[in-house]
Amino acid sequence: MPVRLAQLALPGGRPYRGKVESVAVRRRLKGNTFDLLLVTDDDAGGSTAVAVELAL
Hints:
Blueprint: E1 20-30, E2 33-41, E3 47-55
Antiparallel strand pairs: 1-2, 2-3
């Protein structure tokens, strides 16, 4: 099965540079579009939750 990769981007198009540690699908929005929750880790004790819309 082929692997699909995606470049995460901030609003405005700049690349997101966080290190994603966990991905959860929260819900299907429509068709092949999904609402995801990503958790990042900065290796210094900080974590961030990031909401993402993914279209396949």
